[in-house]
Design goal:
Elements (H helix, E strand, L loop, with lengths): L1 E2 L4 H18 L4 H17 L1 H12 L4 H27 L2 E3 L11 E8 L2 E5 L7 H12 L3 E5 L5 H14 L5 E4 L3 H8 L5 E5 L2 H12 L5 E4 L4 E5 L5 H13 L9 E7 L3 H15 L16 H16 L3 E4 L18 E4 L16 E7 L2 H9 L6 E5 L3 H10 L4 E4 L13 E2 L5 E2 L1 E2 L1 H7 L1 E8 L15 H10 L3
Parallel strand pairs: 1-6, 4-5, 4-7, 5-6, 7-8, 9-10, 9-14, 10-13, 12-13, 14-15
Antiparallel strand pairs: 2-3, 3-19, 8-17, 11-12, 16-18
Length: 478
Amino acid sequence: MALEGGQSGGMDDILQRQKQAQLRDGIPGAEKRIEWLDRCIGLLVDHQDEIEDALCEDFGHRSKDASRFTDVASSISALQYSKKHLAKWMRPEKRKVEFPLGLLGSKAEVHYQPKGVVGVISPWNFPVNLTFTPLAGIFAAGNRAMIKPSEFTERTSELMKRMFAQAFDETEVAVITGGPEVGADFTKLAFDHIIFTGATSIARHVMRAAADNLVPLTLELGGKSPVVLGRSADLDKAAARIMAGKTLNAGQICLAPDYAFVPRDKTGDFVGATTKAVETMFPDGLKDNDDYTSIVNQRHYDRIMGYIEDARAKGAEVVEINPKGEHFDQQPHHKIPPHIVIDPSDDMTVMQDEIFGPVLPVKSYGETAEAVEYINAHERPLGLYYFGEDKGEKDSVLDSTTSGGVTVNDVLFHVGQEDLPFGGIGPSGMGAYHGLDGFREFSHAKAVYTQTGSEILAMMRPPYGEKFRKQIAGRIKR
């Protein structure tokens, strides 16, 4: 089921019917949750070609091989992981009971109960993955879902609307399409939980709207995720891995390496290594290369080109990595070749905003402490990346900084580990999901205590006597 336009009344009607269905049907067992996950997996398998085509059309050009990996295969992996483990996750978790009550038969447990209906607000950069991956945790926890996909990837959103309508009743999953006004109305609904993936600026509005109904939130945002190359790093290997992350989806990734710290005496070598890495990945050039993705629309193309021009105008050395010397001023799409901005100043917009494109500022440093001090002087990022073999230096960087997550000797890969929580901190987000952490994020952890049949606690009831006073006195001590 999908609605279009500002039909907030219609959205609320669906929400109420989903809540009523949840109450009517009761807590779904493992079999029902697995069935929901299997339906999602089936949709991705059956519609993989259509998904790739829709994403390619929405971006102007998007690598179909990359889409199959990032949006189809990765989503299936998350769903299968939850399917495999959810029965174990659902079991009540035993906790300790105060002595001596445990010896007398008292029990303490945590029961993980579905929250109810979860609102999913998914972004345009990985619209399928960032719809289906949250559903892995949402369905594993036994919830229903209402989904608001991005209007920027209109064809993909419409495709997902049709896909879910084929496999789910609207009391299980409903897709709401439309523009910003519809999105604003969506955030005002009294969900039992909301997960929003997108820009920090929009998240502030989502959080304000959710506050009116005291709806708990998972916010997956972004920020400027730094790279620290230690002196012990293999420059060629590091450059290849960093540029793979920077060119995947043309850098339109919330976890993309945003800027890199490089030892001052190795900056030139690193820039050369990034050029070599791009030439290796795209030997036939970039402009007509099916493996190289476009910027999603004109607005974002102009924004990224503005960063490059601003850096040049303010005196930065800017290196365009263009293996075949192609001209991008006339092209059918919005492709931007990778650019390296060497030693940018903080007044440049490329160092102020999340780049979300194939531009990598490189900052030279003398001591690792300089990089750590700079990172800590700015907002806490979603990701941080350290390259090097010096364990003491690595531990110092990781212990002295705070980020949502870390990958060592590569970029992005921590997000692909289903047994690790994925989330931000502060301006880069709140809450975490994936795997067990996703199950618990979308569950209510309900404390359940079962009292002993013994009347040993009778002394705790009036009239208070000497036994009671001695027992309390025994607790009041250092």
